[in-house]
Amino acid sequence: AQSVTQLDSHVSVSEGTPVLLRCNYSSSYSPSLFWYVQHPNKGLQLLLKYTSAATLVKGINGFEAEFKKSETSFHLTKPSAHMSDAAEYLCVVSDIGSGGYNKLIFGAGTRLAVHP
Amino acid sequence: DTEVTQTPKHLVMGMTNKKSLKCEQHMGHRAMYWYKQKAKKPPELMFVYSYEKLSINESVPSRFSPECPNSSLLNLHLHALQPEDSALYLCASSLTSDYYNEQFFGPGTRLTVL
What we know:
heterodimer; A: mainly beta; four-stranded antiparallel β-sheet; 12 strands; B: mainly beta; seven-stranded mixed β-sheet; 11 strands; 0% helix; 56% strand; globular
């Protein structure tokens, strides 16, 4: 079975400094991996996805993630944080549910705070 | 059109009321999902529709009744809910229900049951 571990529940950075949000996964086959962002009381917005093409994936709003099979990691980075980046970030692996459907396995989330 | 819309944004209902949540997408997606999200928790899957047929019911109580009238529309009918059902209800869609397809989420309906 697939699983996802987000290594930090909270990350705090200053505006203009780099962001690193860590995610490790467990998968018995080639995974599909996603990062979503959720602002308070909002839906989930897809930042980027990995589906076995390039290992360095570029997403929206300057975010990118690198798939490292040897480390079973899919960490999210951004070179320079903006105040509007403050939100909850969810690392997700896609599994095949018992009915053959697309079952998302969510990490517990990382709350990113950005300080002026 | 690349978005999933949900109405209403907020809903307050009593335990004896009947109400419905509505979800719509015009991306030609053939899989649609309902999730429930409690505060500070990731979303939990409730139902999956694939090609307008209910394919998965994750042991959700019968007071929640999904309906998929056509490929663009998904409803969630609510009846005799309990206060613990208060949560953010999210709708999502994907091209098909294959595991490699990303899901696109709507903004959610914040439900409060009194």
